[in-house]
Design brief:
172 residues; mainly beta; nine-stranded mixed β-sheet; two-stranded antiparallel ribbon; 2 helices; 11 strands; elongated
Length: 172
């Protein structure tokens, strides 16, 4: 796909045109863009499978494992640093991007988070929770739900597993 010729020069189509073509032809946008850059090395997102490690508490902490499964994700390059958990509980089911019971969360294990980030943490007792980092604590966005601890001091955390980078809602 070259685009259109204006004088003696080829002009590539705009993004709007590519999106309209994608819809009309029922071809993924990535495929059309790749055709524009066939001569160049263009790294598109590929589907990789990341391990679903188990349940994480969005309320009371969880220790139960899930039978070996994987979750597909679209990434550029490798996905070794990504893992997934299924959420149990609704203590994070509030705010701008709620994380609710049954949701799948994708976690970047190379990113340990920052103040305000939502992370998965392994507690001293070996259980896992998903919480927001605020002032040296892990906090719930919906503390009234599930009777789980609304605030966990970082001193009770054995390890920050990683930052939540994607939420797949059971309603999506």
């Amino acid at each position: 796909m070259l685009g259109r010729k204006i004088g003696d020069k080829w002009v590539k189509p705009s993004l709007d045109t590519i999106v309209r073509l994608s819809r009309a032809l029922d071809i993924p946008v990535e495929s059309l863009v790749a055709k524009l850059y066939e001569d160049e090395q263009l790294r598109l997102k590929e589907e990789k499978h990341v391990p679903l490690l188990g349940y994480v508490g969005g309320g009371p902490s969880q220790l139960e494992e899930i039978a070996e499964r994987t979750i597909p994700v679209r990434v550029r390059g490798e996905a070794r640093h990504l893992v997934a958990f299924q959420v149990r509980g609704d203590s994070m089911c509030a705010g701008r991007r709620p994380i609710c019971d049954g949701d799948i969360i994708i976690v970047n294990t190379e990113d340990k988070g920052y103040p305000g980030a939502v992370v998965v943490a392994r507690l001293e007792n070996g259980e896992y929770v998903v919480k927001r980092v605020v002032n040296g604590h892990l906090v719930s966005t919906n503390p009234e739900a599930n009777g789980g601890p609304p605030v966990i001091p970082l001193g009770e955390v054995a390890e920050i597993v990683g930052r939540v980078v994607e939420v797949r809602s059971r309603l999506d």
